[in-house]
Amino acid sequence: MVGDWTKDLSAVRAALSKITPSTPLELLGFGGTVAAEANDPAALARGAFFGLGDAAIAALAAATLDNRFAGVTVVGLLSTYVLDGAMPAYRYGVLVPGILRWGDISLIAALAHCPVRVESLVHPAGRPLSSKERAAWVREVRQLSRRLTQERKDDIH
């Protein structure tokens, strides 16, 4: 599914570029709103939502595979495909078969052809990353980018 969504985003970019060729196009992907009380019926009755990663991963992948985007902003991005013993809180449509033999979400971000703004990151179980965990993730993306592209990846926030 992520591959299909990524192709769709590139197709939309191509169509919009024909309409407004001089306008830079940026991606914005939402992974969903993560609620700590995702299994709490009272929280659901108040309008709490849960789920993560879907559009955020697709937007990041599109920015990696298509170098014509001006930037990408993701909200509620799944930080890793590696499960830490908890049940995953995301839909299985975000899974990419065999991806961990190749890399992880951090590598996808490192390979993006444009500035990447990550508004929020979440664990596979749906819990938001702490500021320390987020800083470590950003550091990893920057290190991967420098190793792979020989460029400084200071444009990930």
State the gist of this model:
This protein is α/β, with parallel strands linked by helices and 157 residues long. 41% of the residues lie in helices and 11% in strands.
Write the SSE topology.
Blueprint: H1 2-19, E1 26-30, H2 41-45, H3 54-65, E2 71-75, E3 77-78, H4 99-102, H5 105-110, E4 116-118, E5 121-122, H6 131-149
Parallel strand pairs: 1-2, 2-4, 3-5
Would you give an account of this structure?
A 3-stranded parallel β-sheet has the order 1-2-4, with helices on one face. It has one domain. The protein has about 160 residues and is an alpha/beta fold.
What keyword list fits this structure?
single chain, 157 residues, alpha/beta, three-stranded parallel β-sheet, two-stranded parallel sheet, 5 strands, globular
Q: What is the rounded distance between the termini? A: 26 Å
Q: Please give the radius of gyration in angstroms.
A: 16 Å
User: Which segments are poorly predicted (pLDDT under 50) over 5 or more consecutive residues?
Assistant: 33-39, 43-52
> How would a textbook summarize the main sheet?
3 strands, parallel
Q: Helical stretch count? A: 6
Q: Percent of residues in helical segments?
A: 40-55%
